[in-house]
Every structure is written in C-alpha cells, then in structure tokens.
Amino acid sequence: MLYSTKTPAAKRVALREMLTPGAARQFPGAFNPLSAKLISEKNFDGVYISGAVLANDLGLPDIGLTSLTEVATRAGQIARMTDLPSIVDADTGFGEPMNVARTIQELEHAGLAGCHIEDQFNPKRCGHLDGKNVVDTETMLKRVAAAADARIDGNFLIMARTDIRAVEGLDAAVDRAKAMVDAGADAIFPEAMKNVAEFEAICNAVDVPVLANMTEFGKSELFKRQELADAGVALIIYPVTLLRSAMGAAERVLDAISEDGTQQREVDNMLTRSRLYELVDYEAYNRFDTGIFNFQVPTLDIGSNSANL
C-alpha cells in the first residue's frame, strides 16, 4: 500500500549486488508510476526511466528540452512506487560539471538507485538518431568525475554512457569506456552497438557492469537476453517499449470510437476494472481505512449544547 517498503539506500545496495557480468538483468522502462508497479509485479529485476519517455510524455521530442526538476520529480514518483531499484536517464547532466554534481544529488534525494550521464553535446538528441555530436574526452571525464564526487551515498550508481560508436567507431567507444571507468564510472552504457560482438568487446575492455539498450526501431537488433548474457552484459533496458505499446493501444481505441461510435471492439484488449483495482491495491487501502476510521460521524441535534460537540 502507498509506496515502496524498501529505503532508497537498500535499493542501491540491491542494484550493486545484482549487476554482475553476464547477469543480463532486465529493466523494462516505466512511463508512469503505475507501470512501475506492473513491472514489479511481473518479477523483473528493476525499473528503467528513459529520458525520451519523460520528454515524450510531456509531448516533447527527446532533444534535451526537459529540466532537471521535471526529470527528478517524475523519476522520484516512479521510483517510490516499487521495491525494485530504479535507474534514470540524466542526459548530459543538465549542464557543465557543477550542474552535473547538482543533478546527482537531486536524483539521490528523489530516491533513485542510479543514473547515467552521456557524452553528447548539450542539448543532446536521441541516441539512435543520426547526426549526433559528442564532446571531447576531457569534457566527458569532467562530467563523470563531478558525478562521482558529488554523490552522498557511495552506492548510488554512476553509469557513463558513450554515443561515440556512431561517430568515430567501435575502437573509439572502447577507448572512451576505459577512460570513463578510470574517471569514476561504476558502469558503462555503450549506445547503438551494431551487434553482439560489439557488446562483447566493450564487456571485455572494462571491469565494470555493461548495459545493453534494446530499444525498438533503433540501431541495434533486438537481441535475446541469453545472447547478451553470453556476451557478458550485466543489464538490459527496454526504455520505450511500454510507452509505445500503451500509445499504440490508445490510438487503436480512439480509432474505434471515431469509426464505430463506440469503443466496444477494443474492450477485450483493455485492462479490466478488477485488474486495475488489483494493481493499485484497492483492497489494502480499504482494510487500512476500515481499521483506522472505524467511528461514526456524529450528527448535530437542534438545540444541543455546542460545548458537547
């Protein structure tokens, strides 16, 4: 009932413990707090919160238009709904090193278990679009160092993402991954790898957990969990999958209403009322309310002494 039964500190410890090479832990992307509850109920390992999803949910493209406050607030609302650790996309850290430092502390205070900072120009663009620009190595290492130095809880996971593969090739991605680890990154997110062998190359090059981004319609194929586990991947994210699925369903229902004058043809595909009530745990709230507020509200009798009210 209400929110998570685990503290943010406990979730961070759990995240650290689960991220071992080859574990291929699965973190579906939540697009709102209720979807995070569903991810938890389905026994996944954790929750991912995509910057693209947060932007798209506001009706914006993923080009760096969201603010730190918007991201921290929404990510915190999602993270507190589940006992699973939640990782959030912090884009470029919302500015230069001092901004990155503040970003880390804001996300810590919001209850996240970790985040990733990337090496694109600020503002950035979606990692699976063409025409990306990356900052020089020195600038990125300053971001990573600022993030690592700023955290209060040493278990808060600082993941460094590099988009350099699409700009300068795999060798450059390997070199930058190594440098980011040396600067203090706890994990590496190599974006837009072409195949499993490229993920394996990154895993072999660093001694920290490596993330694989399995987003639809992107540069990478949708590799199976076991394929990525065999390559040494520690964590897999499915960032926009649930949002795309939900919006696809919403569009089909709106089409049905427009074309048929009723939503009837789509009702069988909807979450039922009872299932929705189960997901938000209506029964637990009812038990709590009955147990605490078990008195009757008195009525006012005409002519009674107000001192007895």
End-to-end distance = 34 Å
Total individual domains = 2
What is the SS-derived class?
alpha/beta
- The oligomerization state is single chain
Please give the number of β-strands: 8
Unreliable stretches, pLDDT < 50, 5 or more residues? 300-309
- Nearest-integer average pLDDT: 92
User: What is the CATH C level class of the largest domain, in words?
Assistant: Alpha Beta
Proper CATH architecture of the largest domain = Alpha-Beta Barrel
Strand percentage: 5-15%
CATH evolutionary superfamily of the largest domain? Phosphoenolpyruvate-binding domains
SSE run: HEHEHHEHEHEHHEHEHEHHH
Using only CA atoms, what is the Rg? Answer: 23 Å
List keywords for this structure.
single chain; 45% helix; 309 residues; TIM Barrel; 13 helices; three-stranded parallel β-sheet; globular; five-stranded parallel β-sheet; alpha/beta; disordered C terminus; 2 domains
